[in-house]
Input
Amino acid sequence: MSATKPLSRTGDTPPAPVRIVHLGLGAFHRAHQAWFTQHASDGAQWGIAAFTGRRPDAANALSAQDGLYTLIERGGSGDKFELMTSIVEAHDGADVAALSRLVAAPTTALVTLTITEAAYNLAADGTLDLTNPAVQGDIDILRAVTSVDATANADDAGQAPAAGTAAGRLVQALAARRAAGTGPIAVVSCDNLANNATAARAAIGGLADVVDPGLGAWIAENVSFVGTSIDRITPRTTEAEIALVEAECGYVDSSPVVTEPFSDWVLSGEFPAGRPDWASAGAVFVDEIEHFENRKLWLLNGSHSLMAYAGQLREHKTVAEALADPVCAAWITEFWDEAEANLPAEGLNISAYRVALLERFGNARIAHHLAQIAMDGSSKLRMRAVPVLKAELAAGHSGTGAARMIAAWVAFLRRAHQDGAPIADSASVDLEAALNLAPGKDLVALVAILDVQLAADAAAVAAVTALADGFAATA
Output
């Protein structure tokens, strides 16, 4: 293959038929669900049509090379390169006509989601946040669409206004599936949310209930929401990886993805229209997923968030750098001990999981930047720190490890506010308003954004305050 041309499919390797629609075309999806699909025993029968989120760039780049890209598996001793073929179409997320057409197609069996925690637009109690301006805008659009049955077919969908949020766009597409009569379908959330199936149902079903109770009832009857625990560290691609692929593989790839050798996927739920044989690629199917979700959210993602804020306050830039700091490493162990105490002792193999995490985090060849992890902390800490702290306090313990994570977040936000730096968070307006309050009151307001009950707990606030002041003293 010429090094002066991008990737393209050859005539003797036709793409798989589209049977999966994905929302959230990013590096993680391409390293995880697309990888599991390609490695399934029947992967050649399951093509993915993937849609971007806020911007069309990734779809444009992938479309130019027929959906092909290179997966760089970066181990401690070297790199492995794999040409990925499971994504057969890439679309701008704003193209709701294409989304509706594909979701309504009788061959489409499931929709997967990696839209980030914040994109579900849920309130702190887990219900759809009807006060969110984006949600309100979608309600108006979707009411207009459903009132004239504009999603009855692809041509109508092309003329209809398009919802702006991921949930809104999927509600619009599911309305098209209902109109087409193509039957039940599964929606599989692959985001780092506790009870992510419940979150997806709250976002999608909740929006449909408000817009069109009949559509809401159809979704409740015909859409299966599948919960998952997903795990594969996937940092951002840099120009260095693009150059590396050209040098090692002999072709130009604008969109390679770098990831670690480890991968894990646990799923729970029904697939009424079928699914790939993901188990043959290593996925695990269970009846109850909550404990697997919490193991991953608390131990991996929780320690990531702790390093993201405490590590940056200590001038570290990557996960490997933070882990090499004995102070940060001790804080991780402290938090892990608390998290483990609130997980079942049997069935999760937590000791081995912790050992594996240390090895994965210490892989300095994976440049997992703390600034990337620190984004959208208000939604992440709600699931990674708050449950552990509340459980520890309820048990009569100090919860210092979990409180330290929240304190580091507070100190990190205070420093950004003082420096006039932008806050990369979907709740940035609320966070800025809290940070404008007097010292002490700002902390209570910030904690309230995470959890109102926690902000009313004097012991929790005192613990977070002391630890946040400690970060300020050493900054």
